[in-house]
Specification:
37% helix, alpha+beta, 79 residues, 3-stranded antiparallel β-sheet, 2 helices
Length: 79
């Protein structure tokens, strides 16, 4: 399972590109410790939303993120 912020971020962007989706990062700043991911489809409808911590990722946080985006990227998308 991926567990580092850069790996998870890159996987999200790659999977979204593969599915023709757009990922938008909201509420991000250099001082922020979490990013709000908004995932849009071709019709500009928000189909997914999740918080991606940039620091202090733990197994519970990662499992929650995987669950929240499973309906978009499929089961075990972080494996």
């Amino acid at each position: 399972m991926l567990s580092a912020y850069p790996e998870i971020r890159d996987r999200i962007f790659q999977l979204a590109r593969d599915k023709g989706l757009r990922v938008e990062l909201a509420e991000s700043s250099p001082r922020s410790s979490a990013l709000l991911l908004l995932i849009w489809d071709q019709a500009h409808i928000n189909i997914g939303r999740a918080i991606l911590p940039t620091r202090h990722l733990n197994p519970d946080v990662i499992a929650d993120l995987e669950r929240k985006l499973e309906h978009i990227f499929g089961k075990d998308w972080l494996q």
